[in-house]
Amino acid sequence: MAEPLKGNVLLVDDDPAVAKVLGALLGQAGLTVHTASNGQEALTLLGRKPIDVVVSDVRMPGMGGMELLAEVGRSWPDVPVILLTAHGTVPLAVEAMKAGAADFALKPFDREEILFSIRKALLRAQQQEGTRPLVKEASSFIGGSTAMAEVQAMLTRAASGTATVLLRGESGTGKELAAKAVHDASPRRGGPFVKLHCAALPDTLLESELFGYEKGAFTGAATRKPGRVELAHGGTLFLDEIGDITPQVQVKLLRLLQEREFERLGGTQTLKVDVRFVAATHRNLEEMVRKGEFREDLFYRLNVVPVWLPPLRGRPEDIEPLVRHFLDVHAKANGRPPFTLTQDGLEALRSQPWPGNVRQLQNFIERLVVLSDGPILTGDEVRREVARQPGIVPAAPAPTPASPFPNAPAMPAPAGGTGNEGRTLESQRKEMERQALVDALKRAGDNRTLAARLLGISRRTLYNKLEEHGLV
To answer: Domain end: 310, 339, 365, which one?
Structure first.
């Protein structure tokens, strides 16, 4: 028997009967269910409740499911969306997946199928928590360094062919952006660009996501479901973190790359597919091959056109254009006026090692935009925010393990006496934690998602702490 599901589901459907039946089903499975009758009501609830997954009908008056999917992706990118439709076709699935849907299910829905889809979405969201893609506005690489010019030239040359491209480099260097650049510059740009994060799912779910499944293949497989390979037919399939797949999946992936054919889980029919593969990893695959952790033949199949993305510390001349781009993007996104960065502010940014590369720089600039008092960003402001993030500067003090708020103000030193005077360490910690919550909510304009980001915690942790301190 499957474990009870845990989490908050937002069910969006304009049909009260469907909402009642499906809501009862999800509640029986252990989920906390919130309901909305239209897209606008759903957006309001998302701003107030700690929603873990959205299940929405596609066709509704006013804002439909696809429009709601786009709004959720913009404001709550960590919340997966599952779409329900009575018109389930592969073209619709392609459209939904390209738009960012976590999954889709057919009406009339099957109990096991919808619970299986929700379980997948919850698991993927939990394992990907804390990761954020580079801003969508960056449709091409920013910067004019020699290193990035070489990368762009390599990607352009690779795009014109059909050979598999393997993107290498540290986390945060823009491998997904590079994969999309290959697709957009290729003859397949009119086809789908389908992504699969290989490290986010265990074997069983990864195989079903990759190859799809037949009805009855396992508990929850109530209908035939196309996998990402099938959805990418005529386009590009991006396999992120390919170094994290197990030997069992490596065998099946090798056959797919060699023969361009596969079977759905539980099926016997061999399907041919026309797909261009782009893979990415931050791992040392050569070392993994030597240790027997990665198949040598699969490595050679993937490593046809290797492209290395340099770390940000290896192209410091790109920091200025990246910073100015992110300042513009995040000022507009947060309703702030244009920002001016002083020369000493730029030098303070250049002096940082940025181990998280472009992604870390982007997140830091967003933080600067949100927390700054005015449109002029100086070196002092940059250094102040750097000091609040121990992860950037090795010499900074580590946060207290007992608290999830690494940016909360430090405890004041006692002025004489023991400093206890009726206040225990725990009571002082709670007071500081509560104040950190209040300050973050104020700076974020009561936007809970932004407040969680400012505190460096997940939305789930934020809501738990707000409830603990009576701030809900």
So the answer is: 310
- Token look-up 């513009």 returns 328
Q: What domain range is 164 assigned to?
A: 146-310
What distance in Å separates the CA atoms of residue 7 and residue 20, rounded to the nearest whole number? Answer: 18
Beta bridge partners of 168: 281, 308
H-type alpha helices, 269-378: 285-290, 296-302, 319-333, 343-350, 357-371
- Which DSSP state fits 98? H
3-state secondary structure at position 201:
coil
Nearest to 54 by CA among 26, 24, 17: 26
Q: Report which of 353, 358, 370, 445 is spatially closest to residue 407, judged by C-alpha positions.
A: 370
Q: Are residues 317 and 302 in the same domain?
A: no
Q: Has this prediction a pTM greater than 0.70? A: no
Q: What is the mean pLDDT of residues 459-464?
A: 76
Q: Determine, yes or no, domain membership for 3.
A: no
pLDDT tens-digit readout, 45-94: 887 788 889 999 888 888 888 899 988 887 787 789 998 877 655 567 66
Mean pLDDT along residues 138-143: 59
299 pLDDT above the threshold of 90? yes
Half-sphere exposure of 295 (CA within 13 A, CB side): 16
Phi and psi at residue 154, in whole multiples of 5°? -65, -45
**Boundary of a domain, candidates 68, 101, 128:** 128
CA distances in angstroms from 407 to 359, 385, 403, 430, 451, listed in the order given: 19, 9, 10, 14, 12
Cβ neighbourhood burial of 252 (10 Å; 0-12, 13-18, 19+): middle
* Alpha-helical segments (H) within 372-455: 379-387, 425-443, 448-455
Same domain, 268 and 360: no
- What's the chain's average pLDDT? 82
Does 165 have pLDDT greater than 90? yes
